[in-house]
Amino acid sequence: MRNVRPIIALDFASKEQTLEFLSNFDESLFVKIGMELFYQEGPELVREVNKRGHDVFLDLKLHDIPNTVESAMRGIAKLEVAMVNVHAAGGLKMMKAAKRGLEGSKTQLIAVTQLTSTSEEQMQKEQLINATLEDSVVHYARLADEAGLDGVVCSVHEAEAIGDACGEEFLRVTPGIRPAQVSVDDQRRVATPAQARAQGSTHIVVGRAITKAADPKDSYRQIAAEWRGE
Ligand SMILES: O=c1ccn([C@@H]2O[C@H](COP(=O)(O)O)[C@@H](O)[C@H]2O)c(=O)[nH]1
């Protein structure tokens, strides 16, 4: 099911910057709190953002032995965030353990397949994976599905193939979103909001194109409209 609100990546260094950014908006947002902000401000900021009426995707990309991930997820469950993630490379047992840790909570659990900053050449050389990037991503998506997860993080370019493999209900959360005129930076597998819509993403994640825009609210509005097909 497509979520009409782009997820804004709150990649800020402090609580003050984050709350100042959020004060530009008067509606309820879907935001992502990742490592940069969480390691500075911790769970307290997650509670604060939640309290202000925003939905939170806690992007901590857990990747450890199953027992550690299960215990960490038990703690995360108490934060009542909308979504959290692990790395699919942690394996089937780890993903099942993560799901057990979230038992009793409404938090959706998704798995990172291949980071959108990874190219096929890099994956083959550095991870020694002898497959196409799409095959590797679809393989991880099937594994996440088998573990009972709600979906995956992937690029727009693999979203359709994942829908075919795991079903349309399976979430395809896609970062690497760049409006046509915005620079690609460190991302490799990028796409516009319109391409994401056409290729079956269920959620888009947008950071710098909004947070570093001269007018973040206007940029958010334009990206959201393109994503909704308006
Ligand atoms: O594969 C992945 C997984 C996570 N991310 C995160 O999404 C945002 C993207 O920010 P931009 O500024 O729009 O590039 C960022 O927080 C990443 O940590 C990703 O890009 N790719």
From TrEMBL:
The keyword Lyase applies. SUPFAM superfamilies: Ribulose-phoshate binding barrel (SSF51366). The active site is at residue 61. GO terms for molecular function: orotidine-5'-phosphate decarboxylase activity. Keywords: Decarboxylase, Lyase, Pyrimidine biosynthesis. CDD domains: OMP_decarboxylase_like (cd04725). The keyword Protein transport does not apply. It comes from the Bacteria. It catalyses: orotidine 5'-phosphate + H(+) = UMP + CO2. Substrate binds at residues 11, 32, 59-68, 116, 178, 187, 207-208. Residues 5-223 form the Orotidine 5'-phosphate decarboxylase domain. Its EC number is 4.1.1.23. Pathway: Pyrimidine metabolism; UMP biosynthesis via de novo pathway; UMP from orotate: step 2/2. Catalyzes the decarboxylation of orotidine 5'-monophosphate (OMP) to uridine 5'-monophosphate (UMP). Belongs to the OMP decarboxylase family. Type 1 subfamily. Homodimer. This is Orotidine 5'-phosphate decarboxylase. It comes from Metaplanococcus flavidus.
